Amino acid sequence: MFDFHHFLGPKFGKWKRNAITVAGGNGKGQELNQLSSPSGIFIDKNKKNFIADSFNHRIVEWKHNAEEGDIIAGGNGEGNRMDQLNRPTDVIVDQQNHLIIITDYGNRRVIQWLNQTQQILIHGIDCYGLAIDKHGFLYISDYMKNEVRRWKMGEYNNKGIVVAGGNGQGKKLNQLNEPHFIFVNEDQSVYVSDGNNNRVMKWRKNAKEGTVVAGGNGFGGNLNQLFYPEGVIVDDLGQIYVADCWNDRIMRWCEGKEGGEIVVGGNGKRNEPNQLSEPTDLSFDDEGNLYVADFKNNRIEKFELIL
């Protein structure tokens, strides 16, 4: 089944300011050593990077220390055939069973690749982010309906259940405005990066509204603000890590605190090792190293944990 290695964040963990590029970084392009606007990433326990290589319309697997990646889904041009993708945004991989689930954003479908056999799980959904919990539920954010829905894995012939948002576009506590990436914790609380509201929301299981756990103070670059948040991960201590996309930084927030702290980036929008340019997603490996999809720099950056 899926690899749920939970990251126990060091309480005051710090990461090296300068990153190592572990995938891409060779300009924007479609060669195997290049990426084109990488969006969602998934790191497995062998430190393999699985990347939604969005504008190359493919999912690539980049082994630890590899010079180039392997195409494991798509890569047959932009299109809506079963063997094609159109701007995939997020990916989850179950390596044991050779199962890949993809939000195929441009085709408005969630698609599964199982041993190179494709199946559409959900049609006609403006999907962006996805998550799976340990109980076998699949969660998908719909950025047009401003909601997150949940399905029992394997049972997709229904509309799913709304678990966040679903009350129209807006900034009330029961609303979302362009939800993108999502994270689900052990007790099935759903964390949503609520892009246009410049905040991260937490919806407890069966809640009728969410709580603001990061941002929510308008857009800007102060420590109590976010500017179009994207990827979100919560560690076992409840610390919220968020890709603060348009501020070019990764933030850490503790629930209930007024502001967050900059973990990496925030040093301007260029491609130096200590810089990010519109980071979209983030992930941790088993050792607590931080990986960032550096969207505009067409690379995946690894920031090593300082022990």
Structure described in brief:
It contains no helices and 26 strands.
Question: Structural class given helices, strands, pairing?
Answer: mainly beta
The CATH topology assignment is: Neuraminidase
Q: Which CATH architecture?
A: 6 Propeller
| Helix content class | under 10%
Silhouette: globular
Q: What is the tally of beta strands?
A: 26
Major sheet attributes: 4 strands, antiparallel
Global mean pLDDT: 94
Which class in CATH terms?
Mainly Beta
Strand content: 35-45%
What would you give as the CATH superfamily?
TolB, C-terminal domain
What can you see in these coordinates?
The protein is mainly beta. It has one domain: Neuraminidase (6 Propeller). The strands form seven sheets. A four-stranded antiparallel sheet has the order 2-25-24-23, with no helix packed on it. It is built from no helices and 26 strands. The chain is globular and about 45 Å long. Keywords: Repeat. It holds the Pfam family NHL. One of its GO terms (molecular function) is zinc ion binding.
Main attributes?
single chain; 307 residues; mainly beta; Neuraminidase; four-stranded antiparallel sheet
Secondary-structure blueprint:
Elements: E1 14-15, E2 20-24, E3 38-43, E4 49-53, E5 58-62, E6 70-74, E7 90-94, E8 99-104, E9 109-114, E10 117-123, E11 127-132, E12 137-142, E13 147-152, E14 161-165, E15 179-184, E16 190-194, E17 199-203, E18 211-215, E19 229-234, E20 239-244, E21 249-254, E22 261-265, E23 279-284, E24 290-294, E25 299-303, E26 305-306
Antiparallel strand pairs: 1-26, 2-25, 3-4, 4-5, 5-6, 7-8, 8-9, 9-10, 11-12, 12-13, 13-14, 15-16, 16-17, 17-18, 19-20, 20-21, 21-22, 23-24, 24-25
